[in-house]
Hints:
This protein has one domain (2-13, 21-231): Growth Hormone, Chain: A (Up-down Bundle), CATH 1.20.1250. By secondary structure, it is mainly α. It is 71% helix and 0% strand. The chain is built from 9 helices and no strands. The radius of gyration is 18 Å and the shape is globular. Helix 2 packs parallel to helix 8 and helix 4 (72-93) packs parallel to helix 6 (130-154).
Amino acid sequence: MSTFLAEARLTVAPSRDARDGLLPPLLVALTVVTGLVDSFSYLVLGHVFVANMTGNVVFFAFALAGVGGFSAPASIAAIGCFAAGALGAGRLGRSLGARPVLLSVTAGIEAVIVAETVTMAALTARPVPAGLRYALIVSLSLAMGAQNATARKLAVPDLTTTVLTLTITGIAADSPVAGATGAHAARRLISVLAMFVGALAGALLVLRVHIVYPLVIALIILAAVAVLGATRARTSPYPAT
Length: 241
């Protein structure tokens, strides 16, 4: 239990000399963003995700099979724009140096994109018109593709910010019940909890308040990550990506 708690503390409040510095809590924050924007996209934009592409591949198959409520063009738009965002961030990652700089720049770009979606969502009501629906899918998918590529480049273990399948697999497969040590269980559980909290908050806000609020909260988190990443990059040495 002491090891579990120590790992949890290092994930959410790492020491200044920790190997990954401030990156773990910032990536946990971005995982919350994933839950927020995917709850918004699924509940407001139809059966489509802007961050979890595994779901969109399945949704695309459902649409082709004629299952009601699923849109092949929406799924393809999300997948294509997510890939474009990942491509852009991949090129960016090869031109930047310190890891917090990459995270800060990516979060800043995401914040600009999400700010545009906040404006779009604030000026519409449900059901969202088709043109605006696709504009939101395209914008948010680009942002989340960039986020996912950046998290991949940073390579902080068990903090991918958008994908939990392998994280949940690791929790089970590496547990003492499976004959393993249970290492990294705390960080993995925090990652799962972060996305759950984001998705729950996003769903409640969409259903009971206003559709724009999940995006507003996501924007605030992204701006904070951009600022903190830039600040830490100036005050602490980090290895290059």
